[in-house]
Automatic annotation (TrEMBL):
NCBIfam families listed in its UniProt record: PPR
Keywords associated with the record: Repeat, Transit peptide
Domain Pentatricopeptide repeat-containing protein-mitochondrial: 78-197
Spans of repeat PPR: 109-143, 144-178, 179-213, 214-248, 284-318, 319-353, 354-388, 389-423, 459-493, 494-528, 529-563, 615-649, 650-684
Name of the molecule in the record: Pentatricopeptide repeat-containing protein-mitochondrial domain-containing protein
Species assigned in the record: Triticum aestivum (Wheat)
Family matches, as Pfam families: PPR, PPR_2, TPR_24
PROSITE patterns membership: PPR (PS51375)
Length: 703
């Protein structure tokens, strides 16, 4: 009777009959069965049969109906259901099955836990997976090695490295074992976040847990320390890996060579490449590319091409990257014919160049003034179905300008601008820099303004260069306009650009605008250094506002910015000019001399305290001031002090002292100093001759 009933249930299930027919039959079986084992066996067989002929939702529904009849499925049956739901590829169905099981208060095991969480991790639902994990642990489920390992791996796949790391640390402290794969995945995730000390600690912990070191941990550390440019750590872990009996592979070898490349140790790249090849390592295309790049950078194109041929002989097919590298190497050497030949070999090998390849070749043509070849190259790109981008045109325009082909650059610029192109700002930036390179600052400025009116903007470098050149040409207002437009576009000029703008206004005596830009610079949080302060101080000194210059000097020191000898020279020169100005204002000579000496001594004392040594320009201003104040002996003493310090006086120092002697009528001393100057090989300038000749002429007229 039981066998017939059981057979009927399975036939109904196998025919896809579903619930209405099966549930009454199972109810009848439940009432007929004398042992729970027979009922559990029937339930297990029924659910197993449904997994092959029914949908997952229908099977879950039947599972619920059975429980409502009072049939309590075993853990094995629950896992069959969960596995079937997981195979549907829809984590929502798996969670639905889990919710049914949880609703009925059924007990699950570690295998159940793995089935549910893996399904959720596949769809990157890490938070839900963690929630299920926590619930099942609270329900009394004890994860095994596979469950822990699978869960940690799933968290890593979903980017939850911190959580995976925390769980691994916790279970490690509790003495719970996991698979080596779990350690490796956490180490991989941490290394990608450059948390390398933690990776090293995990590697040690893994060893303490009794696992034999494998190549993966070392690989992660070598890769990441290589990216960071920490060669010592790379070599340490590389040697440790070798000492444990692991042979290097192409991946690890490439990490090592890339570290050398990053640090600019090009010769070491070629040296280690030879060692790797001699060791019997089957070098792959990546390693060949790194070595070819190194030889190209060293200018050794013979070896680079030799490696390209060797690749072919080894059965490896050079790709676009290898050929492009060789083309770039030739272009860097200015060897355009061989660059063109390498390009033709690339085409014959049916390796299709990309825009990068064309850009490199175009740049090489431009730098060598090969205008016609550049336009032929653009046509070739079109024939290959490639559209030149804004960078292509920008490189060509920049190359034309640098090779003094400005007219060709303008022609191409006008054609492309009229045609229209994405990211045309690159083109505008190249043309602005092209004009500046050719010395056409006004043209660059007009183009900048025109572009700005169109709502577009050139790049940061072009703006900075334009600002600097406008300042150099004395167009402070133009530079100010560029700076304002940069700020409107949320582009902050650097300290150098601000300094030059402030200096340009100081040169014209416009201290109001100079101060406005100085305060703007400070408010934007830029690091104001001694150069900026010195520029502004010099501006105040030139317009005779020594009080403001001294305030700035004190402010600089209070902010912890140490003045340099140039700052002291500027103030010293300012005080000298103030001395001369007071002469014209009718201030008595005694009063003027007293004030000048006081200021000079104060600055000398401050320099000594700051441990700043005077240089030749400082001595020049100091000696000139002492001569003008009729302190010739002190001036001569400073001159001798300059010589004792091993400094070499220039024509300006000599001229200042010669002028002092002449003003006091000591013509012989002035002439002796002049002869000493000539004997030292220092060429007198026009001012030196003028000072000496005028005084000699006056003496003769007097006599």
């Amino acid at each position: 009777m039981l066998f017939s009933l059981f057979r009927e249930i399975l036939l109904q299930a196998d025919g896809g009959g579903g619930g209405p027919e099966i549930v009454p039959l199972m109810d009848q079986l439940r009432r007929t069965c004398t042992t729970s084992y027979a009922l559990l066996f029937a339930t297990n067989s029924l659910i197993t049969t449904c997994t092959s002929c029914c949908s997952a939702p229908d099977t879950i529904g039947l599972f619920g109906d059975l429980f409502r009849l009072g049939i309590v499925p075993s853990v094995l049956t629950c896992n069959i259901l969960l596995k079937f739901a997981a195979e549907s590829g829809d984590s929502e169905i798996v969670v639905s099955a889990y919710d049914q099981i949880k609703l009925f208060g059924l007990t699950l095991d570690a295998h159940s836990l793995g089935l549910i969480t893996r399904s959720l991790f596949r769809e990157k639902k890490a938070d839900k997976a963690f929630q299920v994990w926590a619930e099942m642990i609270e329900m009394g489920v004890k994860p095994d090695i596979n469950a822990y390992s699978s869960f940690i791996a799933g968290l890593c796949d979903c980017g939850k490295i911190d959580l995976a790391y925390a769980i691994l640390q916790e279970i490690s402290r509790e003495g719970v074992q996991v698979e080596p794969m779990a350690y490796n995945m956490v180490m991989d995730g941490l290394s990608k976040e450059m948390r390398l000390q933690e990776v090293e600690m995990l590697l040690e912990d893994k060893t303490r847990q009794g696992f034999t070191p494998d190549i993966y941990g070392y690989s992660y550390l070598i890769r990441s320390y290589g990216k960071a440019g920490n060669l010592l750590k790379v070599l340490d872990h590389y040697e440790a890996m070798v000492s444990h009996g692991f042979e290097t592979n192409c991946h690890i070898a490439s990490y090592l060579l890339q570290c050398f490349t990053k640090l600019g140790m090009t010769s070491e790249v070629t040296e280690h490449f030879q060692k790797l090849r001699d060791s019997g390592l089957n070098v792959d295309g990546v390693l060949y590319n790194i070595a070819i790049y190194a030889y190209c950078k060293l200018g050794n194109m013979d070896e680079a091409v030799k490696l390209l041929r060797e690749m072919k002989a080894e059965g490896l097919t050079p790709d676009r990257i290898h050929y492009t590298c060789v083309i770039k190497g030739y272009c860097l050497k200015g060897d355009v014919p061989n660059a063109r030949q390498a390009f033709e070999v690339m085409l014959k090998a049916n390796v299709k160049p990309d825009v990068v390849t064309y850009n490199i070749l175009a740049s090489g043509f431009c730098k060598n003034g090969l205008v016609t070849e550049v336009f032929h190259l653009l046509d070739h790109m079109a024939d290959q179905g490639l559209e030149p981008n804004s960078l292509t045109y920008g490189i060509i325009i920049d190359g034309f300008c640098r090779s003094d082909n400005l007219s060709e650059a303008e022609v191409l610029f006008n054609i492309v601008e009229e045609k229209g192109i994405d990211h045309i700002e690159v083109l505008y930036s190249s043309m602005v820099c092209g004009y500046l390179h050719s010395g056409w600052t006004d043209h660059a400025y007009m183009l900048f303004l025109r572009v700005a009116k169109q709502g577009k903007f050139v790049d940061h470098f072009s703006c900075s260069k334009l600002m600097n050149d406008l300042c150099r040409d004395g167009n402070a207002q133009g530079a100010s306009t560029v700076c304002s437009m940069m700020l409107e576009n949320n582009v902050i000029p650097d300290v150098i650009s601000y300094s030059k703008l402030i200096s340009a206004y100081c040169q014209t005596g416009d201290m109001h605008n100079a101060c406005l830009w100085f305060h703007d610079m400070v408010q934007r949080g830029l690091s104001v250094d001694v150069i900026v302060y010195t520029v502004l101080m010099n501006g105040y000194c030139k317009v005779g506002q020594m009080e403001e210059a001294c305030k700035l000097f004190d402010q600089m020191i209070n902010l912890g910015i140490k003045p340099d000898v140039i700052a002291y020279t500027v103030l010293l020169d300012g005080h000298l000019k103030e001395y001369l100005q007071r002469c014209w204002q009718g201030v008595s000579k005694e009063r003027r001399i007293y004030l000048l000496r006081a200021k000079q001594n104060m600055l000398l004392s401050s320099m000594k305290k700051m441990e700043i040594e005077p240089d030749v320009p400082f001595y020049t201003v100091l000696i000139d001031g002492q001569c003008k104040a009729d302190f010739l002996e002190e001036a001569r003493g400073r001159f001798d002090e300059l010589l004792q310090k091993g400094l070499t006086p220039d024509q300006y120092v000599y001229t200042a002292l010669i002028s002092g002697y002449c003003s006091q009528g000591e013509i012989e001393k002035a002439q002796d100093l002049f002869e000493e100057m000539v004997d030292r090989g220092i060429k007198p300038d026009v001012l030196t001759f003028s000072v000496l000749n005028q005084k000699t002429l006056r003496e003769r007229q007097y006599q």
